[in-house]
Amino acid sequence: MNPTYDFTGQVALVTGAASGMGLATARAFARAGAAVVLADLDQEAAERAAKELTDAGHQALGIGCDVADEDQAAAMVARTVETFGRLDMAFNNAGIQAPPADAADETAADFDRVNAVNLRGIWTCQKHELRQMRNQGSGAIVNCSSLGGLVGLPERAAYHASKHGVIGLTKSAAVEYAPRGIRINAVCPGVIETPMVADMLEGQAEAMAEIMKQQPIGRLGTADEIAGAVLWLCSPGAAFVVGVALPVDGGFTTH
């Protein structure tokens, strides 16, 4: 049984919220009583997801945002505050994969693209979320890293570099903002049953089979299991948790 939270009167922002872990987390925040902003590169999908929540009686807003574009990230936060009056919690989840490649053969275009979304995108979102939370004197941010932020795997150098970077960004900002009443942490999902992983299972079956052999729990994780970790990190139950990179990976990183 999952714990229940009461986020009534609070406002949560989730990026990459139209599907997968982002959508599961947005739904969980809404069930816990928060007003939720669902941001995604696919604006129509974000709006559909928000309508699902409003139709169920929740407060929700769907907006389009390319997190790699700082102006769009700033506008996303500004619209959140204009609509709901504040910002209490954020899950910076938007991310992409990079095609597997020999480290000597990865292209600059692939490296730049994956880092633009996975690292710069979290930097832009966190920066503008912090400006609002700094004014309030309170808030909680969870950045989405990966098991790829904790380990190395062959043919994944660019992607893992981006996810290692998220942890460094998280820890440094966490130390800076903990005295100001704002907690910042990262979650490190393992192999989770999402549309992105489904594509990997289909297109990189051999590599994924090897990864699954290292999964002690013997199954994929679920998006709801990541949502549960994010809500805990945002809750009073994690009031003394600052700057962690929390593995939610079925034991993968224990090797």
Cα Rg: 17 Å
What class, by secondary structure content? Answer: alpha/beta
CATH superfamily: NAD(P)-binding Rossmann-like Domain
In angstroms, what separates the terminal alpha carbons? 28 Å
DSSP strand content? 5-15%
Total number of distinct structural domains: 1
Mean pLDDT: 94
Going across the biggest sheet, name each strand in turn. 3-2-1-4-5-6-7
CATH class category name: Alpha Beta
Give a nutshell description of this structure.
The protein has 255 residues and is α/β, with parallel strands linked by helices.
Structural description of this entry:
The chain is an alpha/beta fold and 255 residues long. The protein has a single domain (11-247), classed as Rossmann fold (3-Layer(aba) Sandwich), CATH 3.40.50.720. Helices cover 47% and strands 15% of the residues. The protein is built from 8 helices and 7 strands, in the order E-H-E-H-E-H-E-H-E-H-E-H-H-H-E. It has helices spanning 20-31, 43-55, 70-84, 108-136, 157-177, 195-203, 205-213, 223-234, and strands spanning 11-15, 35-40, 60-64, 89-92, 139-144, 182-189, 245-248. It has a 7-stranded parallel sheet with strand order 3-2-1-4-5-6-7, sandwiched between helices. Helix 4 (108-136) links the parallel strand 4 (89-92) and strand 5 (139-144). The two termini are 28 Å apart. The relative contact order is 0.14. Keywords: NAD, Oxidoreductase. This is Glucose 1-dehydrogenase. Residues 10-190 form the Ketoreductase domain.
